[in-house]
Design brief:
Largest sheet: 5 strands, parallel
Strand content: 5-15%
Number of strands: 5
Radius of gyration: 26 Å
Number of helices: 15
Distance between the termini: 91 Å
Shape: globular
Helix content: 55-70%
Length: about 350
């Protein structure tokens, strides 16, 4: 059995070896001809393994879905890139995770199935099945019948042989219907009510969204203007959005929309405005979005991957739902709220 080296001596030897390699590049120690280097490397490797095992022994697997999501959020910044990708997929697609096999999940996410198994084990589970059970329990109460809808969707998409222009449209429509239905279980009613409260009480509603998020805030600007609410679009044209945001006050509201890959200016504006106590309502694609930590209310609208692009059907529907609810408040008409038309007809 190899003699062990105390940690203090190990560290000293590592530093000495590194200094020798730096100052004498032509006379470096070689692991092939130096028993000392071999012993140091083996001891260092054993120490790392021991520390990893000590950490793993302390990990307790989350007992329910809510606790799991909290743990993922807490550890997200320290995760490797591949684990971060898994974390985003799990939080964006909880229903799919509940009903699909680990191989199908791996194929959809672009991460090998074995990585999902290791991810689950790193969280204290014996395997992916144990982690998946939490998603299944959530689904059984939150979205009854979803499994049947998923299977029907996959059957319909898998059976499509029409590659014409109409066939492509059919594919998009079927996926959008699934995304819209999923919102009914993914959006908490309390969050809708709180967001509408903030919009109703706001002196001025500031809007920011760039790249493919721009159509969502343009729709919001149109409807809010027609409802008589003061609103200002932080337009990136001329590079003035960041400067315009500096006049936002705590009695106002910032409504931010951003999806992966998140526009840097939008993220920076949201963080700066939140630091001044301004309430923020946000629409994004994940609870791991960089907008999460700053938003008073965050609507995470997962979007199914598309070969060509991602659809805006679900976030546009959510934006319109918020403005319809706001119109019902402003007009004291919960039955048939309306907005004036530009032509007045």
């Amino acid at each position: 059995m190899m003699n062990s080296i105390p940690i203090a001596e190990l560290t000293f030897l590592q530093v000495a070896l590194q200094q020798n390699a730096t100052t004498n590049p032509d006379h470096r120690f070689s692991s092939r001809n130096s028993p000392l280097v071999n012993q140091v490397q083996r001891s260092h490797h054993a120490t790392k393994i021991a520390r990893m095992l000590a950490v793993d022994e302390k990990v307790k697997a989350p007992k329910d879905y809510e606790e799991l999501i909290r743990v993922i959020h807490d550890r997200y910044e320290q995760m490797s890139k591949s684990y971060q990708k898994i974390a985003v997929y799990l939080t964006q697609n909880p229903n799919d995770v509940a009903v699909r096999s680990v191989n199908a999940i791996g194929e959809s996410s672009g991460v090998h199935a074995s990585s999902f198994v290791r991810f689950a084990q790193a969280l204290g589970y014996e395997g992916f099945k144990d982690l998946q059970t939490l998603f299944q329990k959530r689904l059984s109460t939150a979205a009854p019948g979803f499994e049947a809808r998923v299977k029907a969707l996959e059957t319909e998409l898998g059976a499509r042989t029409d590659r014409s222009e109409f066939g492509l449209m059919h594919d998009l429509v079927v996926r959008d219907i699934a995304s819209l239905q999923e919102m009914l279980t993914a959006i908490p009613p309390a969050d809708l009510a709180e967001a509408v409260n903030l919009l109703e009480k706001a002196d001025v509603i500031y809007l920011i969204g760039q790249l493919r998020s721009a159509p969502v805030v343009e729709l919001l600007r149109y409807i809010l203007t027609m409802l008589g609410k003061r609103c200002t679009l932080l337009d990136p044209g001329g590079g003035l959005a960041t400067h315009m945001a500096r006049v936002i006050r705590p009695q106002d509201v910032l409504f931010a929309v951003s999806f992966r890959f998140y526009a840097n200016e939008v993220v920076n504006v949201v963080e700066e405005v939140a630091s001044r106590g301004v309430p923020i309502v946000a629409i994004s694609d994940s609870t791991l979005s960089p907008l999460t930590k700053s938003a008073r209310v965050l609507f995470a609208v997962p979007e199914h991957e598309y070969t060509f692009s991602r659809s805006l059907a679900a976030p546009m529907c959510l934006a319109q739902a918020l403005t319809v609810a706001l119109a019902a408040r402003l007009q004291n008409n919960g039955v048939d709220p309306r907005i004036p038309t530009v032509t007045g007809q």
